[in-house]
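Batch manifest, entry 17 of 40.
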Amino acid sequence: MAFGQQSGPPASIRQVRELLALLNDAGHTDFRDARGPMGFTQRQAAGKFTRDEAAAFVARLQGDELHGTPLTVVRSAKLSAREQLPRHLPVEQLASELRRRGWTVTEPLASSSSALGPDANFGD
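Output type: structure tokens
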């Protein structure tokens, strides 16, 4: 298979439209805008998906919708790679790194290790 080629039959127009509608509902303007947050390749950012890829992304977006956990819209143009990095780290890894650097890290009272929220206590 050549670089950038699809590894299966192309997605139907209906699948691509449904995926774009779900991305719009999640706050993205188009496939390129959603490339970073959704993990699209260059080919996918151009709107070219296989049937399986489109079905998987649609299921992912609908699953987040059903579970009440909307996808976080991160505008990569506004955040540098350095600013985006901590958002993708597992909470335990982030806490370990902060402790290694001498910080005091405690979990928020309302949450049990699901995320370091704005109430996280970072001492001197």
